[in-house]
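User: Could you check the structure of this?
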Amino acid sequence: MKTPFVPNHLHLIVKGYVKNPPRSEEVVNNWLSRLVEKVRMVVVAGPTSVYVNEPGNEGVTGTVTLATSHAAIHVWDAVTPAMFQFDIYSCSEFTAEEVIEHLNEFGLISCEYISIDRNGTRMTIKEQQELSFEAEVII
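Assistant: Sure, the predicted structure tokens are below.
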């Protein structure tokens, strides 16, 4: 008999700055697909991305719906350095390190993250950290 799936409710929220921001829907969709594989999740819809060309709010947003989970990234590429906001919620096991390593494909300058354990009756902060990377800002 197959062992039933037991959800492990984890939520990671990351804000950071990158040297080489993604600037197209195709790049973000590919990045999200590879992230899902890396953290051992299952896509049920997407990924879907769109580039917003509104002055002051330029950048790409991408989302992927996972089995009872999601991942989303929002990138503002017209500011220097480029900024991103990212979050992933999953019922599967994954680590902040796996996700940060994947975000580093965009040339992380710095980021801060908070990992939230959403199991039980109350949410708890599992980990919170600020990271700096040796990087040169491209202007």
